[in-house]
Amino acid sequence: MIEQPTEITLHQQSLALEIAFADGTRYHLPYEFLRVYSPSAEVRGHGPGQEILQAGKQDVNVLGVEPVGSYAMKIVFDDGHDSGLYTWEYLRHLGSSQHTLWQEYLRQLETAGESRQPHH
């Protein structure tokens, strides 16, 4: 079982969530990264190959986080998205695989002809 984080900090200046665990592991996860890798069905789809590419999320902000039991948290984004349950295990996965996942996301955006910039 993954232990609960010892610290969760929202950095509104750098638009990142900092999460720390008892073993000393600490991750700095940008809001945009958390948003595009939301574990919600609206982003992930309902099965492999049904993922929906999230574009234009560069400036997304977090309004708050809400604990869900002792195993997860819900992140409320300012674009109205709040249906993803981020388990501690999933947040650890995002942190440890952050570079690889980010490169994959940028590659998918490029392939789709999309941008991180919000559409105005």
Short structural summary:
By secondary structure, the protein is an alpha+beta fold. It is built from four helices and six strands; from the N terminus they run βββααβββαα.
Please give a structural write-up:
With 120 residues, the chain is an alpha+beta fold. The protein has a single domain (7-112), classed as 2-Layer Sandwich (NE0471 N-terminal domain-like). Helix content is 28%, strand content 26%. It contains four helices and six strands. The protein has helices spanning 31-36, 41-44, 88-96, 98-112; strands at 7-11, 16-20, 26-30, 62-68, 72-77, 85-87. The strands form two sheets. The chain has a three-stranded antiparallel sheet with strand order 1-2-3. A three-stranded antiparallel sheet has the order 4-5-6. A hairpin with a 3-residue loop joins strand 4 and strand 5 (72-77). The longest helix has 15 residues, at 98-112. The protein is globular and about 40 Å long. 16% of the residues are buried.
